[in-house]
Amino acid sequence: MTKIWYVEDDGQIACMVKEYLEERDCQVMVYDRPEAVREAFEAEKIPDLLILDWNIPGGSGMELCRWIRARWRELPVIFLTVRGDTRDIVNGLGGGADDYMTKPFELEVLYSRILALLRRTGGSPGQILVCGEIRLDRSRMEVWSGGRKVPVSQTEYQILLLLMENIGRTVTRQSLLEQVWDSNGSYVNDNTLTVAVKRLREKLGHPACFRTVRSFGYRMEM
């Protein structure tokens, strides 16, 4: 599920975009003021993509875009605004946005722009797996927790990948042993899995969504 933040003070437009994107398996959080977005970022929460209006109460979309770009250079940003003058478009793209759309707009076109931008940045839907504060990028084989990149071993990555691919379902210990170790032609005892999971949990900061199903296996819960 692709996590999108939308900065828009027009409730009707925000609701329309949110409903449309959520029907397409996106998770959309709407903010109507720049300070709320800054607080979310400073809490080390990072979306997969940001949609940004230019004219917003309490500041401007351009100022917010520059603030974000100075801290997160690779975060995809799309301006969605009524300001359609050539100078505005040039300034918006020059200020750090990756794409620029003017209102009125077609929802289908916006979604197509989102998909295209995520493909270019390596974050196409299906490549980013999210559970709580944990983000796993399959295209880059990277793991993030609480906004920080987490260094994991190949074994730890494979364990987490299997759990993230089965969010809401229990993955048995036997299944993990077979898929992580036996597929590589290695035989290990049950204690090896216990130790690997313990280390992975510690690296992730003991997230609440990472659950143990006693005497059976593990599961990730939203």
From TrEMBL:
<dbReference type="Pfam" id="PF00486">
    <property type="entry name" value="Trans_reg_C"/>
</dbReference>
<dbReference type="InterPro" id="IPR011006">
    <property type="entry name" value="CheY-like_superfamily"/>
</dbReference>
<feature type="modified residue" description="4-aspartylphosphate">
    <location>
        <position position="53"/>
    </location>
</feature>
<protein>
    <recommendedName>
        <fullName>Stage 0 sporulation protein A homolog</fullName>
    </recommendedName>
</protein>
<keyword id="KW-0597">Phosphoprotein</keyword>
<keyword id="KW-0902">Two-component regulatory system</keyword>
<keyword id="KW-0238">DNA-binding</keyword>
<feature type="domain" description="Response regulatory">
    <location>
        <begin position="3"/>
        <end position="118"/>
    </location>
</feature>
<dbReference type="InterPro" id="IPR001867">
    <property type="entry name" value="OmpR/PhoB-type_DNA-bd"/>
</dbReference>
<dbReference type="Pfam" id="PF00072">
    <property type="entry name" value="Response_reg"/>
</dbReference>
<dbReference type="InterPro" id="IPR039420">
    <property type="entry name" value="WalR-like"/>
</dbReference>
<feature type="DNA-binding region" description="OmpR/PhoB-type">
    <location>
        <begin position="126"/>
        <end position="222"/>
    </location>
</feature>
<keyword id="KW-0805">Transcription regulation</keyword>
<dbReference type="InterPro" id="IPR036388">
    <property type="entry name" value="WH-like_DNA-bd_sf"/>
</dbReference>
<feature type="domain" description="OmpR/PhoB-type">
    <location>
        <begin position="126"/>
        <end position="222"/>
    </location>
</feature>
<comment type="function">
    <text>May play the central regulatory role in sporulation. It may be an element of the effector pathway responsible for the activation of sporulation genes in response to nutritional stress. Spo0A may act in concert with spo0H (a sigma factor) to control the expression of some genes that are critical to the sporulation process.</text>
</comment>
<keyword id="KW-0804">Transcription</keyword>
<dbReference type="InterPro" id="IPR001789">
    <property type="entry name" value="Sig_transdc_resp-reg_receiver"/>
</dbReference>
<dbReference type="InterPro" id="IPR016032">
    <property type="entry name" value="Sig_transdc_resp-reg_C-effctor"/>
</dbReference>
